[in-house]
Every structure is written in structure tokens, then in C-alpha cells.
Amino acid sequence: MNYVGEITGVGSFLPPKAVTNFDLEKLLNTNDEWIQQRTGIVKRHWVENNVSTSDLAYEASIEAIKNAGISNTDIDMIIFATLSPDHDFPGTGCFLQAKLEVPNITVLDIRQQCSGFLYGLSIADKFIRTGEHKNILLVGAEIHSKGLDKTPEGRDVSVLFGDGAGAVVISAKEATGDSSQSQIISCALHADGSFAKELWLPGPGNAFNSDSRCSKEMIDEGLHYPKMNGRNVFIHAVKRMAETLSQTLAKNKLKIDDVDLFLFHQANIRINEKVAEVMQIPADKIFNTIQDYGNTTAATIPIGMNDAIKAGKLKKGMTVGMAAFGSGFTWASGVLRY
Fold it and tell me: Most CB within 10 Å of its CB: which of 133, 264, 306, 322?
């Protein structure tokens, strides 16, 4: 029997605490106008101290599972995408698994940063098509707020990021051969590690000339805070997102007019506007959430998907185009029929 993977449930969770640009003015020597002009962000959500990444993931997962019309015990695989794990090891997927009370199933953690959700979607699709798994829970979850430099020195990076989680259930369905069947149609995954240090977190790490992966000197130098070459990231993001999405559409003999909704990674509204300009995508076909949530990395696309469903912008039977770009550099695209 041939199978396809259908997204049967979507969920998301944002921590209750909203942090506006005006709140950041007090910390970062910045202002609301500067942030909005350069990023499109108005606010983001940050966790309170006692909340973990797997806590956010749990809430999003429960909603996705409920919307799929199944129970926790029907899940037979978890794929967890995050760059901000609960702990260095074990993987955060194991902590989520314990909270969901689904022992003995397959759990896979992946580290593809902003491209993590689309990498995970491609992995899930392939496991589904083999017939090996029936209901895969794919989660993207991040807590950035605990790892940001909340001083004027860290302003350019710290204004960008928010905390949140998004989740989808991908279920195996018998392939009918009907082109209108709800399914993951195609994904394309890419990376170029020669740009790894254009957007990265230097420390702690084992690549230092030191007998310790974490030292006082690293902390004093601020190596535990993310570093970014913003201009280079912007240029490559626009080029690679447009390139991979165009190729994926062409591979599946789809044109812009055939796509009902585009869900892009939410790093910077200017990136998404430029991709739309390059590809000649009408603005009303793009659903953005960065204004409300900032960049939640692996969680941006599933959070956007859930918001689009609730807003009536995404309905069953619609064709969706997706693209993401992030640290690594990694980038990816995908097309699905919801």
C-alpha cells in the first residue's frame, strides 16, 4: 500500500508575557520606530523564569493532537526542532515525550535552526511514505529570551527574537492518486556550512583552544550570546528562499497562481517582502506573524499555520508554499495541500 502524509492537526503556544518595543527601549537604547522600520516587529513573547522549551512544546502538541482527533498514545514518533534545548543532552524531544506520557516510541531531535520545521516536515514525510509510522508529531519550539544580551551592545540581535512553539500531526493516509488529496507534496533541503559563523552562538563549545568547553573568559567576552552579520544574512536569505521555492514549485509543475497561501519563516518582514517582490507574489497571499511574535526560529511556520487557520486564511484543500532560511546557513522549501 502507498501512503502520503497529511497534516491532520495544528497547534501553537505563546507564553503569556508580551514584550513590546517600548519595553525594550528601557533596556537596549533603541526605540519602537527603529525596530519597526528595520524588522516589522511590534512585540514578542518571552517566558517567565520557570518555563522550559519542552513546556512550550507540550502546550502546542496537546492542541495539535486534539485538533487531529487522536490521543497522545496514537503518536508513534516525535520530531523536535530547536536550537534552544532544555539541556545540552538528552534531546528535548525526550523531555516532551515524558510529559506526553508516550514511552517507547521513536524520538528524534534536529538542529537546523530557522529551517528546522521544514527539515522536520521532510523527514516526517519520508517516514510516513515508508509505512513505518502512522502519526508523527513534529514540533518547533524555542526560548530565546533567556539567552539574549539585554544590553545596548546586544541590541541588533535581541530585538528580533521571541519565545514560542508550534506543532503539527502528520498522519499516514492511503494514496489515492488524486492530485487534490491533502498531503505533503514536496520538500527541498539545503545548507552551506562555509557561512556558519555569519549567524552563530560561539560558546560554550569544544572548538576552543581550552581544556574546558565553558570558561569564565568565554563569558567575559560575551561568547555565550548570538552573533550575526545582519547584512549578509539578509542578502542570502532573500536569494536562497526565492531560489529554493521557485525550484520546488517548478518541480511540481506549480505556478504562483496555483498556490493559495505562502508561509515564510518570520525573521524579518523586509526579507519576506523582498522574496515576494522577486517572485512576484501578491501581498494578500502571504501570511506574516512577525509583527506579533518576532522570530521564534523553528516555531515560526507552524505558529503561522495555526494563526492562519484561526483567521480563516488557511482552509482544507488549499495549496501552501513554504520557505525558510537560517543559521548554518540552512534553507528549505516545501509545498503541501492542506
Answer: 264
